[in-house]
Specification:
Elements lengths: L4 H9 L3 H53 L5 H51 L11 E9 L9 E9 L3 E6 L5 H8 L7 E6 L2 E2 L5 H5 L2 E4 L10 H6 L9 H10 L3 H5 L21 H14 L4 E5 L7 H14 L4 E5 L3 H4 L4 E6 L2 E6 L1 H7 L2 H17 L17
Parallel strand pairs: 3-8, 3-9, 6-7, 7-8
Antiparallel strand pairs: 1-2, 1-4, 4-5, 9-10
Helix pairs in contact: 2-3, 7-9
The structure holds adenosine-5'-diphosphate (ADP).
The site of adenosine-5'-diphosphate has 11 residues, from helix 4.
Length: about 400
C-alpha cells in the first residue's frame, strides 16, 4: 500500500504514510521475532553438526599423524589421507546444508502434491458435452448459491427468464446478489441448487469453456490490460484480435475510437503508464475500452455489470439510447443503479437479500408501488431536487448525474 501507484493518491490525501509505516514496522518486528526463533534453532543444529564434523576430522588427522610418526604410513600417503579427509569434511558440511534445505522444501511438497492430486478429480467432474451456440430462452429455476467461504447464501431460490433479443435489467441494493447472479448466468460459477438452462439444456452439464464462448461479460471491476489499445479491445475475441477494422468499429460503438485514435501511436499505444511509451486513461475512458471489448466479442449473450458507472451523462445517455441498435440480435443482461437506464428494459428484476423481490416492466413495477417504486422515486427526487441548483433547464431529470 505504501509503494503502490494506485494507492498513492489516498495514502497522501488521507495522510496515511506514517500510520501505515508504523503498522508495517510492527508486523515486520513480529515476523522477524518468529524468524529469529527459527534461525536460532537452525544455528544450534548446524553448530552441533559442525562441531561433530570438526571432532571427526581432528581425530582422523591425529590418527594420520600418529601413524606417520610410527612409520606405519609414508609421508606422501599421509598427505593424500589429509587431502581426502578435507574433501570428505567439505562434502559432509554441504550434505548437511542440503538435508536442511530438503527438509524445508518437503514442507511445501505436501501442498504441491495435494494440489496436483486435485487436477484429475476436477477434470473428471468437468462436463465435456458441447454447449448450445445460442438460445431462444434462458431460464433460471430455483437457483441458490453460497460462496465457498461460507456464510449466508448470496442467492436463494431465484427464478427468472430471459428471451432472445431482450434487454433484461437487474436492480437492487448493494449486496443483494446481482453480480453473483450475473456470474452464474455467465457460466463462471455453478449453482449450489436449482438450475440455469438454455432452451432446456442445463448449462452445468456442458463444457464451461464452450459455453463462455457464447457470453460476453464486463464486470464493474473490469481489467485494465497494460497492453496496446488494440489488444485491450481485441482480447474480447482473441481469434479475431488482428482485425483492426472490427476493433475500430467496436471502439467507435463504445465511444472510444475518438480518444484511442488520438493517442500518440493510435491503437498501438500501450495503455497504462507502467511501461515506456504507455499512456494512462481516465476511469471513464477505461470503461469505454472495456465496453468496446464486450461489443467486439461476437457473443449472443451480453452481460453488462454497471457498464456506465464511470461514464459522463452524455455518453451514458448515448449508450442506452443506442443499446438496442448496438447489440441488435443479441440478448443483454444489464445491471445498473441508474434507474433511467433500466426503465426501457423489456423486463426488470428487483433483487433483495439474494432473492427476486419484484419483476415486470417499468410501468408495471411503478404501478405495484413496491421496492422499485421506492428506489426509483428516491433517485428521481434527488435529481429533481438538484435541478434548480445545477444548471436550470439543462437537466435530464432521471439519471444524468455523474457518479464515478
Ligand atoms: P451486488 O452485486 O448486488 O452488490 P453481490 O452479488 O456482489 O451483490 O454480493 C452478494 C452477497 O455475496 C454479498 O453478501 C457479498 O458479501 C457476498 N459475496 C460477493 N462476492 C463474494 C465472494 N467472492 N466471496 C464471498 N462472499 C461474496
Amino acid at each position: 500500500m505504501l509503494s503502490g501507484r494506485d494507492e498513492a493518491k489516498e495514502v497522501r490525501a488521507f495522510g496515511l504514510a506514517g500510520y501505515l509505516r508504523d503498522r508495517y514496522d510492527r508486523l515486520y518486528e513480529e515476523r522477524i521475532r518468529e524468524l529469529r526463533q527459527v534461525a536460532r534453532r537452525h544455528l544450534a543444529f548446524s553448530l552441533v553438526a559442525t562441531l561433530g564434523i570438526a571432532v571427526v576430522l581432528l581425530v582422523t588427522l591425529l590418527l594420520v599423524a600418529w601413524l606417520t610418526l610410527r612409520d606405519e604410513v609414508t609421508l606422501s600417503q599421509a598427505g593424500i589421507a589429509v587431502a581426502g579427509v578435507a574433501i570428505v569434511g567439505a562434502r559432509l558440511t554441504q550434505a548437511g546444508y542440503s538435508a536442511g534445505a530438503l527438509t524445508e522444501a518437503g514442507l511445501y511438497m505436501d501442498d504441491y502434491n495435494a494440489f496436483l492430486d486435485l487436477l484429475p478429480k476436477v477434470a473428471a467432474k468437468r462436463p465435456t458435452a458441447p454447449a448450445p451456440r445460442g438460445f431462444e430462452r434462458i431460464a433460471v429455476e430455483g437457483v441458490s448459491f453460497t460462496y465457498p467461504s461460507g456464510g449466508e447464501p448470496a442467492l436463494r431460490d431465484v427464478h427468472l427468464e430471459i428471451h432472445r433479443g431482450e434487454v433484461v435489467a437487474l436492480v437492487g441494493e448493494n449486496g443483494s446478489g446481482k453480480t453473483t447472479l450475473a456470474k452464474l448466468l455467465a457460466g463462471l460459477y455453478t449453482p449450489s441448487g436449482g438450475r440455469i438452462s438454455w432452451d432446456g439444456v442445463d448449462i452445468s452439464t456442458v463444457d464451461p469453456d464452450d459455453l463462455r464462448r457464447s457470453v460476453a461479460v464486463i464486470f464493474q471491476d473490469f481489467i485494465r490490460y497494460h497492453l496496446p489499445a488494440r489488444d485491450n479491445v481485441g482480447l474480447g475475441r482473441p481469434d479475431a484480435a488482428e482485425d483492426l477494422e472490427a476493433i475500430r468499429r467496436a471502439a467507435d460503438h463504445a465511444g472510444a475510437d475518438r480518444f484511442l485514435s488520438g493517442l500518440p501511436s493510435g491503437y498501438e499505444t500501450v495503455l497504462g503508464p507502467q511501461f515506456i511509451g504507455g499512456t494512462d486513461l481516465s476511469v471513464g475512458q477505461w470503461q469505454r475500452v472495456a465496453l468496446a471489448r464486450a461489443l467486439f466479442r461476437d457473443a449472443p449473450f451480453v452481460v453488462l455489470d454497471e457498464p456506465t458507472a464511470a461514464l459522463d451523462p452524455r455518453a451514458e445517455h448515448d449508450l442506452f439510447d443506442r443499446i438496442r441498435t448496438l447489440l441488435a440480435d443479441r440478448t443483454v443482461l444489464l445491471i445498473s443503479h441508474r434507474f433511467s437506464s433500466v426503465r426501457s428494459a423489456d423486463r426488470i428484476y428487483v433483487m433483495a437479500e439474494g432473492q427476486i423481490a419484484e419483476a415486470g416492466t417499468h410501468e408495471e413495477l411503478m404501478a405495484d408501488r413496491g421496492i422499485y417504486t421506492e428506489l426509483f422515486t428516491l433517485q428521481a427526487a434527488a435529481y429533481l431536487g438538484n435541478v434548480g441548483r445545477d444548471r436550470p433547464g439543462s437537466a435530464e431529470p432521471f439519471g444524468s448525474a455523474r457518479s464515478t
